[in-house]
């Protein structure tokens, strides 16, 4: 529909803060508020933004529209209207249309959909959306109804003319009349000039006869002059052509010499670079040789020391071999003696153990027999001592109790003794194992020493390998440092050359950009030259076409570009041009390669990510074989065309080109800089890697040194650890012997305890048996007999025990003597010999040292041989590089000598060409003068070439003198009579044609005026008819019992055209010859409020309320004829009676309900009122309040709005 959805006001008149009014209804909206609250300012804001009022505001008028109140001053104000655009009435393709007008003390601006727009653009948009400038009645402010009410009939006619659009026709008619007046003036001027020309042609007729004679003589004179000048022209052209030929040949020679000179310069530069590189390599080789010499000298000294050490070791080893032979013989003797004694001991031990067991058995028998004997004697004594059984039993029980206590004590002691025996047996077994382990370790002393020596050698080899690697890295680093210095010098020279080719600002800007990128700046891809690879045959044209754009910087987006520009400004770091990829959008030029045209862009190599940037720079550049083709292609395709040499021809015919010095090629210079930077970065990266490797080697070397020290310490500990071990063996053997002695004592004690326990047990058993027997005064016969037998048995056993004991003691003495000799004499002597044999001066240790010394000597010999080979190879390389340097310097000197010769030749050629240029300038100037004289001769006879072709210069000169003398007789003749006659005749013909054209234009203008008059008459008649019909209909709706009509009053006879006349009457009258509208003098209104048939009254006869109703009926009629999307009414019902207010309210409800669907006045209505009738029909109500000199608008309920209106009426 295009209705108003929302209005936002800030700082305008009484609206200070941003006031965003709630969305309006698309139908009827009513605004209520007290007088002075800001209702009219709201309507003024809408008229302000729509341009209905407040046009061409000066500074004071703009300041008057700004809010004035308490608080800070308002510096600017704006009003924004949001229109519904769902039907695309504003042709933007968006569902909403925003129109804003902003004013300040120094500005008055419009914006459309948040984008700036001019006032003319806004007017065009509004008119295309249906806001007619000729019908301003879609906004009815206060006073307009009153103005219509009091409007004169003549003014009402002018209003209808304005609504019909007749002003447009009037403007065009006035322009046509002005053009017609100009045409009449031009025709008058032409007639005057033609008359003057005719008078002058009559005067020239009388001078023609004398002119004929003069002309004949003049033709002959000019023919002779032409012949003479023509021959001179030919001679001059021949001379110039000869000079051109010589110059062409000279230029070719000069170009060849210059090309050779440039090639020599490039070769000299290349040779100089190679010489510097070779010298750098030579310096590195010299340093390597010095280092090799130093290493060889140190290795030679080390070799001498090792040879001395080896000789000493060999001598020591020979002496040690003799001592070892003597020790080996003594060891064998001791070992034989020990084996003999051990064999003897092994034989004694079984005999000793057997005797020992026999002794124990005899002793047990003896103790048993003595016990039985003693018990029988005790029993015999008790029979005499005790008188009865009770006394005996009491005494026996006392003895049994005493024996029980003794037996318990002896068993406890036996148990403890057995535990000690078990512990001693464990100790003996442990000590024997430890002694065996120590003896095995001592026996392996030689093998362990060899293993430790091997581990030490392995650690030394590992350390030497790391040291060799470190030395190699140091040598590589020295060589790399030399190369790095050379590359840095070459890069500095290349950058200086490149900087001289750029302007100072760009050069500094690129340097600053490189620094920013090193600091971590992201989003920079590089310059066009960096991102580009150009084929050799397209290098010149690429450089000529791109020019400064070669060093425009491609960045990711405009944010990156802004950031860099800010830093450049802050650092004063130069100036750069940026190509942000997010802002570049270049359409494809659709250029296709042809036989005579090749687009340059497909020939270039670049990353597809930068397609837009390269199309921006090279998208409209083509390459053509010749400049003529360049001109044609540039004009046909609107492109920039270049030939392969980089010369350019524009579509306007301008040529630009000439010599391109390859030494000043920016692409080549930049490629050299880029190459050197890449080399520098490569060398720096290698240097960093070497430093990292050296750091790693340093840690490895520390670890290897620690490992070597640990292995050497292990070796020293191994060499000194066997003497303590042998001492420990002797100590443990002593401990073992002590333990064995203790074990024997404990075993004897245990045997004694067991015998005593057995004896006590047997005695106790006898006592218990005696208690159980009868009491008698004497032993039984069996006991008497046993007593006698035991007496002899004890005696025999004692004798046997003594003999066995003596034999056991003899065997024990032999065992102890053998053990003492074996452990205290032979074994210590053998251990001492073995200790001396396996110590630091042992054969195994000396052999290990000898092998180590030989191995070190072999290693140092290999090292010296390698160093000799490296020195020899280095000397060979030095000789080769010296030869190369000499050859390169010779070649460079030859090139320099060749260039000096070429420079002298080119200087000579330049002087010769300069002289020829001076001669050619002289000849050219003379030729130009001759040609000018030939041109000044004018038109010549056709036979001039044949007539004088065979005359010599003498005859031509003589005849020329005669004709020149004859010309003096015609000095008084008008020489330009013919020319003036022809010129005047041509001017008369031109003016006559122009007069005919003006007559034709006059007729066209008169026809246009007639058509405009006719269309204006038709538009006014049609508008009057539509408005009169609509007025009658609207009035009848407002006053159902009345009627109303519009009347057009004529000037001629007072006749009236009424709205109920024939439909075509006004139109037919307007189509008659001439404009009938000029006869219309006014439009009057005739109405009747009481009857459809009563006599109607003129508007001047009505009351104030009736006049207002008639004015509103006319407004509604105009709106139905030219509907708008919305309507603003400011208190249009102020002067109406109650019944008419209701009619007007119903009319608004009806029209807003139509919504414009039938195109007859429907649409949105926004009205202000103090009456309840409009409030009752409103779809949405708004209340305007005024607080602290600030207005605000809010949505209110219908009840609140009615309450406010009723309160105002009270």
Automatic annotation (TrEMBL):
GO MF term list: ATP binding; ATP hydrolysis activity
Biased composition (Acidic residues): 1055-1065
Biased amino acid composition, Basic and acidic residues: 907-920
Keyword Nucleus belongs to the record: yes
Domain named SMC hinge: residues: 522-634
Gene3D superfamilies, alphabetized: 1.10.287.1490, 1.20.1060.20, 3.30.70.1620, P-loop containing nucleotide triphosphate hydrolases
UniProt record similarity statement: Belongs to the SMC family. SMC3 subfamily.
UniProt-listed PANTHER family: STRUCTURAL MAINTENANCE OF CHROMOSOMES PROTEIN 3
Name of protein: Structural maintenance of chromosomes protein
Gene: SMC3
